[in-house]
Specification:
By secondary structure, the chain is mainly beta. About 10% of the residues lie in helices and about 45% in strands.
C-alpha cells in the first residue's frame, strides 16, 4: 500500500476541512473558490460584495465594475497559505477589468491555488516521485448599469481541481466543471447629512451556480460551493480629503445540509442527494435542527475603512461563523498606499477562535494598476 507524506495529508485536511468543523458541517468540492484572494478585502474581514469598486470585484460582485471610474484596472494578488506548516502553498490571482462606456464593463480573472510539491513514498520509505496538486479557475463577466444607481452582472467560470495522485490505489480524480455568477450592485448619489455628505451602497452575488462533481472515483457526487452574499455600506464623506466607510456582509452556502442518519435512514433533516438547483432552494429549510441551525449557517462580518485624500487607507474588520459550522472567527487589519497609477494593499489576520486558521501570522499582498480616467476609489 502506498502512502503520502505527512505534509500532504495535513495540507489536504487543512483545505477540505477549512469550511468543515464540529457539529454537522457542510462540505463542498473546490472550497478555494470561497477564499478572498486580495489584500484589500483581507483587511475588511474578507468582505467585498458591497464595498466600493476595485480590481478584484470579479470575485465578490462583478456588477461593481460598471461603477468603476478607471477605464482599465489590473490586479495582482498573492496569499501564502498554511504558512505555519509549510512554505510552498499559496493562492495567486490576477484580475483585469475594462469600463467600456458609461453603462457597461467587463472583467476577467485567473486564480491558482498551489499545494506545493508533495513527495510520495511507499511503506518502507522508498521515493515514488513528486506530485503538484492544484486548483485553478478562469472566469469572465459582463456588467451593465440598468439605471444611474443600479447595475447587474453575469459571469461564467471554468473550474479545475486536480488533487489526483499518480499511484496505483489512488481514489481521487481531477475535476473539470463550469459555473455561473449572478450579481447586482447599488450606489446612491452623494447626499448631504448636515455636517457631512454620504453615499449608500448595497450588493448581492450568487456565485458558483453549477453542477455537482465526482471527486472520488465511483463515489457520490459533491456540490461545488454555490454561495449567496448580501451586504451594504455607507460612506461618511467628512470633507474633500477624509472619508470613512462602514460595511456589513452576510454569507450563506446554497448547499444542502447533511441530514442526521441512523442505519442509512434519515431521522432529521432532508435527503441531500439532490440536484444542484433543487439543493440551492432546499438549503434554506433542510437543517436537521430547524430554523436555529439555518441561522447558524449564515456567517457575518463588519468592517470599516478610513481613506485620506484617496492616497492612504487604513482598514479593520471582524468575521464570525457559528462554532457548529466551522467556528471561523477572526479580526483583520490592513492598509493601502497609492503611488500615481498604482496601489499597494496589505492585510493581516488575527485569529479569535480555538480553530486554527490557515492565514494566521500571514501577511497578504495586492498590487493594482489603474489606467485611463482618474479613479475615485482604491
Amino acid at each position: 500500500m502506498k502512502k503520502l507524506s505527512l505534509v500532504f495529508i495535513a495540507i489536504f485536511l487543512g483545505i477540505f476541512n477549512f469550511y468543515a468543523q464540529d457539529e454537522n458541517p457542510i462540505t463542498t468540492a473546490s472550497p478555494f473558490l470561497l477564499i478572498a484572494p486580495d489584500a484589500r478585502a483581507g483587511g475588511l474581514a474578507d468582505m467585498g460584495v458591497a464595498t466600493t469598486p476595485d480590481a478584484s470585484s470579479q470575485h465578490y460582485n462583478a456588477a461593481k465594475y460598471a461603477f468603476s471610474s478607471s477605464q482599465w484596472q489590473i490586479g495582482l494578488n498573492y496569499t501564502p497559505w498554511l504558512r505555519n506548516l509549510t512554505n510552498d502553498v499559496s493562492i495567486t490571482s490576477a484580475f483585469v477589468s475594462n469600463r467600456i462606456n458609461e453603462r457597461s464593463a467587463w472583467g476577467a480573472s485567473l486564480t491558482y491555488f498551489s499545494l506545493g510539491s508533495i513527495d510520495l513514498t511507499d511503506d518502507i520509505g522508498t521515493p515514488l516521485g513528486t506530485e503538484n496538486p492544484n486548483d485553478f479557475s478562469i472566469d469572465a463577466s459582463y456588467a451593465l448599469k440598468l439605471n444611474e444607481n443600479f447595475s447587474m452582472a453575469v459571469g461564467l467560470r471554468y473550474i479545475r481541481s486536480d488533487m489526483a495522485i499518480n499511484i496505483e490505489d489512488s481514489f481521487i480524480q481531477a475535476v473539470n466543471t463550469f459555473s455561473v455568477d449572478l450579481s447586482g450592485y447599488y450606489q446612491s448619489e452623494e447626499m448631504n447629512f448636515g455636517d457631512f455628505n454620504g453615499k449608500w451602497r448595497g450588493g448581492f452575488n450568487i456565485s458558483n451556480i453549477g453542477p455537482k462533481v465526482e471527486l472520488v472515483i465511483g463515489g457520490e457526487e459533491s456540490f461545488i460551493p454555490t454561495n449567496l452574499k448580501l451586504g451594504g455600506g455607507f460612506d461618511f464623506i467628512l470633507d474633500n480629503v477624509n472619508t470613512i466607510t462602514a460595511n456589513v456582509e452576510f454569507n450563506k452556502l446554497l448547499v444542502p445540509t447533511p441530514p442526521i442518519r441512523e442505519s442509512d435512514e434519515i431521522i432529521a433533516g432532508k435527503d441531500d442527494n439532490v440536484g444542484f438547483l433543487k439543493g440551492m432552494f432546499q438549503s434554506f429549510y433542510d437543517a436537521p435542527r430547524g430554523f436555529e441551525e439555518e441561522l447558524e449557517e449564515v456567517t457575518w462580518a463588519l468592517s470599516a475603512e478610513y481613506m485620506y485624500d484617496k492616497t492612504f487607507a487604513v482598514r479593520a474588520g471582524y468575521f464570525h461563523e457559528s462554532p457548529n459550522k466551522g467556528n471561523r472567527q477572526f479580526f483583520t487589519i490592513g492598509a493601502g498606499f497609492k503611488f500615481r497609477s498604482s496601489t499597494l494593499d496589505l492585510s493581516y489576520l488575527i485569529n479569535a477562535s480555538d480553530v486554527t486558521n490557515p492565514l494566521e501570522s500571514t501577511l497578504r499582498f495586492s498590487l493594482t494598476i489603474n489606467l485611463g480616467d482618474v479613479y475615485e476609489y482604491f
